[in-house]
Design a protein that fits this description.
This protein is α+β, with helices and mostly antiparallel strands and 204 residues long. It is built from five helices and eight strands, in the order ββαααβββαβαββ.
């Protein structure tokens, strides 16, 4: 599959490039990204280089792992450098034949870009394209997170994910099995909260 751009008035989603290696390396030193995502720890520059120049293009070529950099909005002319990377969002597709294919979506955001709704905008844009019959035509989208990652759950909730349960030992993280939340989104679901925010949870 050839990479493509998704955009709204608030964000531009495009493929990470070699120009982003140092930025990815710097952002992945963030404590929250290290704690809650699957990036290597400690995170070295060679990890960023392999991610941008190896993992990302291989994923697009296979059509199984589609990764976008979250950037400020605006058109980019051929030969121009992309705007500074603010975060990352991606879809991991399973191998179920169409029209029953599913994908897990995930994301992370630069500390200085959090709290502005940009990662929610990006996640909604990717999910919309994934579930759209004119897009990827997925039958469902799935979200998973380590229990306690309320920032991720808040984004998923705003996008319309219904949390289906808390599963013991769902995720392997930093060499340990941890409890995880799992939720889903179907094509006919609204892309806005579909259930109340959990009582007693941090404010949404």
């Amino acid at each position: 599959m050839e990479p493509f751009v998704l955009a709204t008035e608030r964000v531009r989603l495009s493929t990470p490039t070699a120009d982003d290696v140092d930025r990815v390396y710097a952002l992945c030193q963030d404590e929250a990204i290290q704690r809650w995502t699957t990036v290597p720890s400690p995170y070295r520059r060679e990890h960023a280089h392999e991610f941008v120049t190896g993992f990302v293009p291989r994923g697009w070529e296979s059509g199984r792992v589609l990764t976008w950099a979250i950037r400020p909005p605006g058109d980019v002319l051929p030969g121009e450098r992309e705007p500074e990377l603010l975060g990352m969002v991606g879809l991991h597709l399973d191998d179920t034949p169409a029209p029953h294919r599913s994908a897990e979506f995930g994301f992370w955001m630069a500390p200085e870009a959090r709290g502005r709704g940009l990662v929610t905008e990006a996640a909604r844009l990717v999910v919309d394209h994934g579930l759209d019959p004119e897009g990827l035509g997925l039958a469902r989208a799935e979200w998973r997170a380590v229990v306690g990652n309320w920032a991720s759950r808040r984004v998923a909730w705003k996008v319309g994910v219904r949390v289906e349960g808390e599963i013991r030992g769902l995720l392997v993280h930093r060499g340990a099995r941890l409890d995880g939340w799992v939720g889903t989104l179907l094509p006919g679901d609204r892309r806005e909260p579909n259930e109340p925010w959990p009582a007693g949870a941090p404010t949404a």
